[in-house]
Amino acid sequence: MQYLVSVIHDSSDLATTDEMAAIDVFNEGLQAQGHWVFAGGLAGPGTATVIDNRGEAAVFTDGPFVESKEYIVGFWVMEAADLDVALKLAAEGSKACNRKVEVRPFL
Amino acid sequence: MSRTDAREAITEAHREEWARVVASLTRRFGDLDIAEEAAAEAFAAAVVRWPADGVPPSPGAWLTTTANRKAIDRIRRENKRDDKQKEAQLLYDNDPPGPPGAIGDERLRLIFTCCHPALAMETRVALTLRMVAGLTVPEIARAFLVQETTMEKRITRAKAKIKAARIPYRVPSAEDLQARVSGVLAVLFLVFNEGYLATGPGTDPVRHDLTAEAIRLTRLIRALMPDDGEVAGLLALMLLTEARRAARVSPSGALVTLGEQDRGTWDTALIAEGHQLVRERLAAAAAGVAPGRYQILAAINAVHTSARDVRATDWSQVLALYDQLARLDSSPIVALNRAIAVAELDGPQVGLAAVDRLEAELSGYHLFHATRADLLRRLGRNQKSREAYDQAIGLAGNTAEIAYLTRRRDQLG
Question: What interface predicted TM-score (ipTM) does this complex get?
Answer without folding.
Answer: 0.89
